[in-house]
Amino acid sequence: MWTHKHKLSMLLILCAVIAISGCNYWPGGPEASKKEIPKDIPQEIRADILKLFSLNKNIRIEAARSLGKKGKMAEPAIPFLVSMLDDNAIKLAGDSFGYTTPGEQAGWALVKIGDASLPPLYAALNHKKKDIRKRAAWTLGWFKENPNVIDYL
Hints:
By secondary structure, the protein is mainly α.
């Protein structure tokens, strides 16, 4: 029979294992469904989009970075990146910035993808989730040289 003390010990061990493994439970991944991933896109883009659904924050961060590096080619990933702007799982970055999050990297990827990201980011300013609205505004700030953003804001 499990006593309260045993249950507490097991819970603490489970929490320690999750913390050490670098996993961060993010229920369901982006709001956009895996079923919404277009079938007729390059396999490397599809693979990166699928990684955005990982339970491991490090994999989500690397997938967002990878999509950003692909620029305009990653346009099919825009709805998935926008829907993960509220992913605030902190990862120590090991550089001068100190930390990053999958949501922050999704924002940077949207900037690198370019102008095709603007309409979904404008729409995200009215999203029901406050963190998505905040990160959308932050991301639009990086488009400051773009006259379309200046006119919109």
